[in-house]
Amino acid sequence: MPVLPFVNTRQRQFEALVRAHSGELYRYAYWLCGQAALAEDLVQETLLRAWKGLEALREAEAARGWLYTILRREHARLYERVRPGMDELDDEQHAAEMAWADPERQGSDAELREAMLALPPKYREPLLMQVLGGYSCEEIAAELGVKANAVMVQLFRARQKLKEALSERSETTHGLP
Amino acid sequence: MDCLEFRRRLGADPAHRDADFIAHRDACPACAAAWARAQQFERRLADALAVPPPPRLAERMLLAQATEERLARRKYLQRGLALAASAGGAFVLGRFLGTRDDTESLRALAVAHLPGEAFALGLKQPIPVSAIEQGFINRGVRLAASPPPDVTYVHDCPVGPYRTVHLVMQRGGLPVTVIYVVGHRNRAHDRFERAGWHGTVVPLRAGTLVAMAANPELLSGAVRDWRLSLDGPAASGHLA
Ligand SMILES: [Zn+2]
């Protein structure tokens, strides 16, 4: 059986990368930006950047962290671009997104998902890195360029805020006459 | 480790596994209960965050990359052509566009087009009939009958100066690439072999079908199926 001559190793390496990581990159992007379409764009930008810089990736085991880093930077760049005057709009978009009747995303735990999207980025980002990316406090600190102690505090507060939001919601709903 | 330190660590990193952390948990019932609650919350959090990615995300990402590559190559090609033209080689442009020898340039372009779609050759999942029909409709072509069931890739990409529908089918574990060139009818049937590919060029309706495979035995079946789909059963029956 002839070997197809043009399926080069770089293309094959990239394809493996995409198949292995696009799902979890999407999840990470979704919780960073809170919008399905934007999340897909972010993943696409991330992977195109990865394709162009594939030579910088020395070992396959480092791929995941490398992709997360690119995605975080892409998200930050996007935020810089749309930042002025977009803060209030962002909230509206989040609300619209949540209201969008998608049974999968509305799921059984819509409260927690909503609370997650309402979490300020400085708490949300390290929490996502820990819960979705499996980063240790030290790794998050290195990635974000802050001290490990500060990361610990952010992670603690992040969970505290989520739990507060959940108990507030259950109080308001159960407290109704 | 005391209770305060344990609770701080637990709130920030519930999956923490250091020996002194675990030792305190096992020695202190109140902290053990807090630990159990924290684990429960982590499971709930992980479930809530597990949004399903959109269907065929990886394929779409690979398509985006291939498109980007193709654009980059076209820019490169256009620069080359502009250079040739400005150097007084306008006839080079004319030849490239196929005014002199249609078959030759179509063969060359079809084969040259393949590397950008290399990933598509590895796709195994058949795509829905509606997606295939849409690929043709995007090029202003309506299929007369159902397309073959084993199409795994469709894209309405340009091949050189030609407007085409590019398809990949999987036959017996091997990819067969079909490029239907819209609005450009080749004068005659033609077979070729180039860069490890066997190809056949067939005038079909108002266009030209180029089928390519590593195994030449797969070509006639592919042509028959697409003739049926493009011409419809009655017309292709007369031709066969
Ligand atoms: Zn204790």
Quick synopsis:
The complex is a heterodimer of chains A (177) and B (240). Chain A is mostly helical and 177 residues long.
Salient structural properties:
heterodimer; A: 177 residues; mainly alpha; Rna Polymerase Sigma Factor, Chain: A; Arc Repressor Mutant, subunit A; 9 helices; 76% helix; globular; disordered N terminus; B: 240 residues; alpha+beta; 7-stranded antiparallel β-sheet; 7 strands; binds zinc ion
Describe the protein.
- The complex is a heterodimer of chains A (177) and B (240).
- With 177 residues, chain A is mostly helical.
- Chain A has 2 domains: 1-105, Rna Polymerase Sigma Factor, Chain: A; 107-177, Arc Repressor Mutant, subunit A (Orthogonal Bundle).
- Helix content of chain A is 76%, strand content 0%.
- Chain A is built from 9 helices and no strands.
- Mean pLDDT of chain A is 80; it is low at 1-6 and 83-106.
- Chain B is α+β, with helices and mostly antiparallel strands and 240 residues long.
- Chain B has 2 domains: 3-49, no CATH class; 57-235, no CATH class.
- In chain B, strands 1, 2, 3, 4, 5, 6 and 7 form a 7-stranded antiparallel β-sheet that branches.
- In chain B, helix 1 runs parallel beside helix 3 (29-49).
- Chain A binds chain B through residues 1-2, 4-8, 11, 14-15, 18-19, 22-23, 26-27, 30-31, 36, 40, 43-44, 47-48, 51, 104-105, 107, 109, 112-113, 116, 128, 130-132, 136-137, 151-153, 155-156, 159-160, 162-163, and chain B through 8-9, 11-13, 41-42, 44-54, 57-58, 60-62, 64-65, 68, 114-115, 118-119, 121-122, 174-175, 195-196, 214-215.
- The site of zinc ion has 6 residues of chain B, from helix 1 and helix 3.
- Zinc ion (ZN) binds at residues 3, 6, 24, 28, 30-31 of chain B.
